Amino acid sequence: MPEHNGAGPAVRQARVRSGLTLRALASAIGVSVGTMSAIENGKVALTIDRLTEIARHLDVPPAHLLRPQPEVAEDAEVPPAAAGDWRYFAELDLDPALRAAIEVFTEMGYHGATMRLVATAADSSVAGIYHYHRSKQHLLATLMDLTLHDLESRVIAADAEGGAPAERFMRMVEAIALYHTMRRDLAFISATEMRSLEEPDRSRIVAMRRRLQDRLDAAAVAATEDGTFTTAHPRDTARAVATMCMALPYWFSATGPMSAGEVARQYADHSLAMMQAPPRVQGS
């Protein structure tokens, strides 16, 4: 029976989009978590029957599992080929340990996770994980760094794309909301595991988050000063907007009625209403 060795990344991508955990998909097709991880890492070839079974559980055509699909926000106003654009989300180039850590931290929480669970999900030995990552804390710090650097670069790009302060603010909110839908698991870990991060990494990550919030605050204050926003509390409202975006990973699903792009634009519109922008601005 023909086998497919290169389907792993596409299977992982489709599973993440569907909202299924590695453990849930493994259980559905009757294999261990380690075997499922090995499939996604391209270490186990898939027969046509197994590929079809996985596709059925992920509710996608089997052909979609033969190669990863472009990760671009639907209905985005830029061509998918624009890989440098802040609305474009390419597959992350992560080592198996980091991919496994995302899965385990999301499902079990940092304190419920162990290096043995990460090793099992990565289809590796515990010693193999320690060879590349000296501790569970190092895995968490690495994921936090990746998340904040990626998010910050997108927010800076969105800010530069805007003109007037209100437009800059709206685009940055869209970028933040889009990140929290397109990179749900990373954003979820970043939002929920800050208390688990130890020094000196904690201070560095806190500073990066504060820098992002300061950028959003500055645009909100500038839009208030030029009369576009009429809220009496632009900084407090900007923080409420950011918190609203950070809650997206708790409920957003790629299989829901709205695409990531639609949700992000809706949140940008909500932010203008919260800033008490006049109707002419909200409708622009």
Automatic annotation (TrEMBL):
Keywords: DNA-binding. Residues 91-151 form the HTH tetR-type domain. Transmembrane segments: none annotated. InterPro entries: Cro/C1-type_HTH, Homeodomain-like_sf, HTH-type_TetR-like_transc_reg, HTH_TetR, KstR2_TetR_C, Lambda_DNA-bd_dom_sf, Tet_transcr_reg_TetR-rel_C_sf. One of its GO terms (molecular function) is transcription cis-regulatory region binding. It comes from the Bacteria. Coiled coil: none annotated. SUPFAM superfamilies: Homeodomain-like, lambda repressor-like DNA-binding domains, Tetracyclin repressor-like, C-terminal domain. Residues 11-65 form the HTH cro/C1-type domain. Residues 114-133 bind DNA. PANTHER family: HTH-TYPE TRANSCRIPTIONAL REGULATOR RUTR, TRANSCRIPTIONAL REPRESSOR MCE3R. This is Putative TetR family transcriptional regulator.
